[in-house]
Amino acid sequence: MTEEREYWTLDELVALTETVQEAEIEHAGKYIKFQWCELVESEEPKFDLDETMDESSKNQMYMDIGKQRCINMLTKANEKNPEGPQMTEELWDKLPSTLRYKIQNTMMGVDVSDFQVG
């Protein structure tokens, strides 16, 4: 039996950068709603990689870039949909890191069940 696939059109993909997406995730027995919007290249955080940096500094820089990317996605959604579930940079910095990772994974489309431990 042949599996029928659905394909994105280019217009649909471009529209993602203007569409506010919303999700609800479970964390510690309760749920949280949040919204985000995909970024275009010009909205992505920029960085200059210094090859002389030690691994610890590089890792910190990558973490900072990832954080800024998520904040940019949340902020863009907040501007496009001010009535939606607002997540600000100030609030983001106060959230438990495990919750931030869940939110980041959702926004990035990462399925953690694909990763195996051991």
Order of helices and strands: HEEHHH
Instruction: Outline the biggest β-sheet.
Output: 2 strands, antiparallel
Overall 3D form: globular
| Strand coverage percent | 5-15%
- Helical fraction: 40-55%
State the strand order across the main sheet.
1-2
Helix count equals 4
Q: How confident is the prediction overall: mean pLDDT?
A: 90
> Distance N terminus to C terminus?
35 Å
Please count the beta strands (DSSP E, at least 2 residues each): 2
Low-confidence runs of at least 5 consecutive residues = none
Q: What class do helices, strands and sheet pairing give?
A: alpha+beta
> Compute the gyration radius: what is it?
17 Å
Describe the structure.
The chain is built from 4 helices and 2 strands, in the order H-E-E-H-H-H. Strand 1 (20-27) and strand 2 (30-37) form a beta hairpin. The protein has 118 residues and is of the alpha+beta class. The mean pLDDT is 90. The longest helix is centred in the middle third of the chain and has 26 residues, at 55-80. Helix content is 43%, strand content 14%.
